[in-house]
Amino acid sequence: MSDDIEDKPQPLLEHLLELRNRLMWALGAFFVAFLLCFAFAKPLFNILVEPFTWAVDWAGMSDRKIELIYTAPQEFFFTQIKIGMFGGLLLAFPMIAAQVYKFVAPGLYKNERSAFLPFLVASPMLFMLGGALVYFFFTPMVMWFFLSMEQTGGGGEASIMLLPKVSEYLGLIMTLIFAFGLVFQLPVVTTLLARAGLATSEGLASKRKYAIVGAFIAAAVLTPPDPVSQIGLALPTIILYEIAIYCARLVERQRAAAKAERDAEDTEPSAAFDPEKDA
What we know:
Number of strands: 0
Largest sheet: none
Oligomer: single chain
Helix content: over 70%
């Protein structure tokens, strides 16, 4: 049978050894990627500061010097470690995903493997799309919003300027990237649930109003307390929810077409056999 599991059943010890080997490969890839990103932590941080530079230009402060500070001796060192871990996880993700797939693939049918593989490609692409949206649009918008609160001083007013800490700025942009990256996985998760029969397009559509409320609640929790980033995350989430409903409908149509094809194949032999004609 083409859909049978090819691998023979393995004892528990062999499964644990296989799991250990896959974990070692995944951790090794992450460690190498971490060292590489940590070695270039300062250039990578300067790349992450670019959205702040764009926000300064948007605020009409193009002649302003871009300054970030750290107030503890070890703060920037730990910030570089975070950059190394963040970049290392992104670089090592293909290897980590490949090891996860190799571990679970022997327990999947061939049709399940062919259905699972596209999601391994779509998931990182959607995450990068969400991260790009954060980097090129939402982070500059958020920083522009915060810059608009500055006070020039004079006339009895104090001078108030935005001087972000390196750790807090990195935490802000990492939070936004992870939040948007996870939200952009919604079509992938929904399609998998639909394939597994755990979700339907009608069920998702009937819960649309709850999803809209949940999107704004999640945006309030995952983003900084400013309306720009909260609305900026909630609106794409709602759009992605509609895309998820459409993906679920596609899965249902494919399942219905496959079922109709199987039914047609099952009825063909009985239709072709005519006892009177054969007699």
